Amino acid sequence: MSTTASHQVTAGFMPLFDSAVLVAADEMGFAAREGIALKLHRETSWANIRDRIAIGHFDVAHMLGPMPLACSLGLTPLASETIVPFSLGLGGNCVTVSNAVWEGMAAHGVVPDLDPARAGAALGALIRERAAAGREPLRFAVVHPHSGHNYELRYWLAACGIDPDRDIEIVIVPPPFMTDALAAGRIDGYCVGEPWNSAAVAAGIGRIVTVKALLWRNSPEKVVGARRSWAEENPETLAALLRALHHSARWCQAPANRSELAALMARPDFLGQPEAIQMPILTGQLQLGAGEARNVEDFFLPFDKAANFPWKSHALWFYTQMVRWGQLAHTPQNLAIARDCYRPDLYRSALKPLGVALPGANAKVEGALKVATPVGSAGASLVLGPDGFFDGQIFDPDRIDAYIAGQKRA
Amino acid sequence: MSAGSLAILVIDENRIRASIIEAGLRDAGHRHVTVVHDVAGIARRIAEIEPDVIVIDLENPNRDMLENMFQLSRAVKRPIAMFVDRSDQASIEAAVDAGVSAYVVDGLKKERIKPILDMAISRFNAFSSMARELEEARSELENRKVVDRAKGILMKSRGLSEEAAYALLRKTAMNQNRKIAEIAQSLVTAAGLLGPLEGE
Q1: How far apart are the first and last CA of chain A?
Q2: Hey, CA dihedral for B91, B92, B94, B98, is it positive or negative?
Q3: Distant-in-sequence contacts of B39-44, Cβ < 8 A, 24+ apart
Q4: Sign of the C-alpha dihedral, residues A374, A376, A381, A384?
Q5: Chain A contacts of B96, Cβ < 8 Å?
Q6: Chain B residues touching A47 at Cβ < 8 A
């Protein structure tokens, strides 16, 4: 393998922990070993990331999972064909509420166990109580309209009988501003990735009520988005990059590397946040507030359980939620665009020479695996799931019309 | 509608830069220019102002929030064509390089927004070069101060004239292939460590 950088790749990222696989690919030398000179640019908003991919400033970028879909479907100001050849991890988000909302929920039976159904029932009761008293609806924040955060928060609320458009207000707040907005009372809760939940707990201003990993076990989060024209013109560079990211992701997952990874991400040019605050995402040992702690299995997976495979069923589930919340019309053409956006074929062809385990299918029935299950794959063995939704629903990408028809607002 | 009848909202946390952009827009004949420094409560302001064009710094992390508000707000019809025009890659790149981004309310012709954006870009660039010059001038001043102090130390400890003290600094700098200001700084630091040579 070449040690001289023959491919230049410019990549944008947001200061969030799940950019770690990209950051480590550069800093730990995985990119250089594949002949890639990776140039990382820290950005300040998802809108910038999206626009800079669209006009060619970035070849690839750390992106919200649904964002490349939104770009390709023309939901963004600058439409651009953006594809997903690699996922950066599963899980990693939490729902955090203010201490006042927690007190209100506690009166309706919430306990610090992260159980989504119990927390949702308590929140619903609090919302009805407030409405009856003529008080303003609660205001929750997510990071972007086309984000896993927005869809999982809405999914959770709706499944618990709360209409996310009528019963509460959802606003957009940049991740680093979440804790300040909560402390100032501008918002009552939020769904965001780490470390911005643990940060609120550490500051004593909020409580973690549930986590993405319990709403939808092993669910998709950030991805690597690539401008389609760039990917088509530079297939060898893309393949080399994907191999570098594969090695980097494996390094990030290994428990032995946790403290080194936390120290790396703590640097001012990446997160600029103390190492200690980054350990919960790596260990799954969350402080929930008021001294309560829980260990969450599969809280964040940068590599294990095929975390980097860009499942078409993940893209299609995001698509169903765009339709559900009125962002998009369900048409055969839109469905086809969504289906073509995630590219397991590119992932598979890039990693094949490594002889690593690769799923044989491009999509799976989400929610079908109740326990961790070894699956048939090329090469070595591969373990998937469990992947259940907390309300027991199943998403079968082959029965998408029925799934969309069955979606309720609340 | 004349050029001056467009309502333009400039969102910039940097007050100096915002005022430079505002002045440029007014010079170009735009009479309805509003500048906002803080995005808190921006939804209400936008409803009041009903801007045709919004100019915002790309470095402002609230871009995501602003975009979403446009999508939800009834006050601003479904807006956002962004930057100048989708097909105009060069203009978009120029805007991005300058750090400026413009939101254009639906229906506004691109010929009308182009000059506004061009102006904003040139003002952004003017601010950047001004900020750079300011920085250079400030470090020049700092350098002069430290050289003066170093000269003072040499004059006092070696009994040199001001001219001779400066010549010694310059010679040392040349011999060590460093800047005079660096030599002066080393001397001032060393003097600080070694004791009360100066009446401090």
Answers
A1: 54
A2: positive
A3: B39/B11, B39/B65, B39/B66, B40/A186, B42/B11, B42/B66, B42/B69, B43/B69, B43/B73, B43/B75
A4: negative
A5: 51-52, 55, 57
A6: 63-64, 67
Map tokens 């297939």 to a residue: A235
For residue A235, what are the CA distances in angstroms to A229, A231, A238, A240?
10, 6, 5, 9
pLDDT band, very low/low/confident/very high, at B75 (cuts 50, 70, 90): very low
Task: Give the residue on A whose Cα is nearest the Cα of B78.
Answer: A77
Rounded Cα–Cα distance for residues A260 and B31 (Å): 56
Is A45's CB within 8 Å of B81's CB? no
* Dihedral (CA of A27, A31, A32, A33) sign: positive
Chain B contact probe: residue of A49, A55, A75, A196 with most B CBs at under 10 A:
A55
Report pLDDT digits (tens) over A320-347: 999 999 999 999 999 999 999 999 999 9
Do A39 and A7 meet the contact criterion of CB atoms below 8 Å apart? no
ipTM: 0.83
Contacts of B58 in chain A (CB under 8 A): 44-45, 48
Cα dihedral A74, A75, A78, A79, rounded to 10, equals: -20
Sites in chain A below the pLDDT cut of 50: 1-3
Give yes or no for a contact between A182 and A200, defined as CB atoms under 8 angstroms apart.
yes
Residue ranges of alpha helices (H) inside A28-147 are: 30-33, 46-54, 67-72, 99-106, 116-132
Residues on chain B touching A165 (C-beta within 8 angstroms):
none
CB B23 within 8 A of CB B49: no
Structure tokens that stand for A274 in this block: 């103390």
- Could you tell me if B85 and B43 are in contact, meaning their C-beta atoms sit under 8 angstroms apart? no
Could you give the C-alpha distances from A296 to A284, A300, B7, B21, in angstroms and in order? 5, 9, 52, 51
The A189-193 sheet, strands edge to edge: A169-172, A139-142, A189-193, A93-98, A206-211
Query: With an 8 Å Cβ cutoff, are B58 and A44 in contact?
Result: yes
Q: What is the dihedral of CA A327, A329, A333, A335, to 10 degrees?
A: 70
CA distance B9 to A80: 27
DSSP state at residue A342: B
- Model pTM score: 0.86
Compute the CA torsion angle A32, A34, A39, A42 (nearest 10 deg).
-100
Residue B110, token pair as written in the block: 């691109």
A172 contacts B64? CB cut-off 8 A = yes
Under an 8 A CB cutoff, do B82 and A48 touch?
Answer: no
Q: pLDDT digits over A288-321, tens only?
A: 999 999 999 999 999 999 999 999 999 999 999 9
Chain A / chain B CB contacts < 8 angstroms: 63
Q: How far apart are CA A365 and CA A21, in angstroms?
A: 27
What local confidence, expressed as pLDDT, does residue B76 receive?
Answer: 46
